[in-house]
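Contributing new complexes? Match this layout with FE2/S2 (inorganic) cluster.
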Amino acid sequence: MTHHVHLADTGETFEVGSGETVLEAALRHHVQLPHECTLGGCGTCRVKLEQGTVHYGEFPAGLTREEDAEGYALTCQAIPASDLVLTLARRLATCSPTARERAVVKSVKPLNKDVTHLVLELPEHSDLIFRAGQYVNILLPQAGHRSFSMASRPHRRLLDFHIRHIPGGQFSSGMMQQLQPGDPLEVELPLGTFCYHEEDYRPILMLATGTGIAPIKSMIETLLDAENCPPVTLYWGVRTEQDLYLQQEILSWATRLDDFRYVPVLSRADATWNGRQGHIQDAVLQDMADALAEHAVYLCGSPDMIAAAKRALLAKQASVHHLYAEGFTQHQQSAECKHAAN
Ligand code: FES
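Output block (do not edit by hand):
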C-alpha cells in the first residue's frame, strides 16, 4: 500500500511505496532530506511527525524511546503506516552546496603513533562556505572515497584532518603513506549536518572520543577570543595518555575562552595516570550535579558512545532539541572514516 508524505517546511509531497522507507522514497523523488549513515545510527535524518504514524523493522539505535514518544522519527528507517506530515527536526545549516575541488597536500605529519595530521589546501578560486563540524570526502584514484571531519576552523583554504591509521586501510595505510607536499587530491565538500549552532546560545557541553575531537576542535576554534562566548565544558575520551595528542593545544584554549573546562578521560589508563578513568558519559554524570536542561550538547565519536551518552544525558534532562551528534557508522568505520573508536 502506498502513502503520501508532505514536508511542511518546503511544501513538497511525495509517494512512498509499500515497504519503502521515507528517505528511500524522498531520494527516489529527488526530494532533499538530511541524512548520513542511512542505517539508523547517527540520528541525522530525524524529523518530527506532525501527522501520521510510522513503524520500524527494528527500532533504530539512533532514536531514543523518549524521542519516539515525542513524535520524532528517523526517515532512513521509518516506514509509513499512514499518510504523513513532517517537519525537519534540524534544518540544514547555511553552507555552500557540495562541490568537487582539486586540493593540494600542504603537509603530512604524525600527531602520535596512531594519528596523522594531514593538511590540504583548496585552490585560490575556492570560495566555499562551510560550517565548523562538517566533513570532506577524499576521492580515491580507483573508486570510492574516505570521509574525514575538518579539524580546522571554517573560512580558510587550509583544511586540517586527524586521520587514524587503520591496519589494511586503503587510504590511511596505503595512499596517505605515499603523500608528499604538492600532491593533488580530489575532494568533495562541504558535507554533513553536524556543526556548531551559534543560534543555540546556552552553556556548551561537548563529549568526544578518539579522533572525534577533530570537528569539536573546529567548533571551539570558532569561539576563541569571541565576545559573549558561552561557557564550554569538554570531555575527551581516549584509551591511554599517549592518545591525548591534542592535550597542550586544548589546555591553551583556556586562555582564549572566558569559561572553559576540560576533562580528559582514559579508558585504559596505566598506574601513572591521576586523572579520570572509564566512560566519558559516566564522568559527565559524576561531575554534573544539576540537570542538563539548559545545555547545548555536542557528541562526536563511536556509535556506541553516542548511543550510551544520549541515553545517559537525556535521562539527566538534556533536551533532544539541543543535542547534536555525529557518530561514524558501520559503513564508515569499515571504510576507515571520520573518527576512530576509543
Ligand atoms: S541517516 Fe538516518 S540515522 Fe543516520
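Reviewers usually confirm one structural detail per submission. For this one: Residues 329-335 have pLDDT under 50 and may be disordered.
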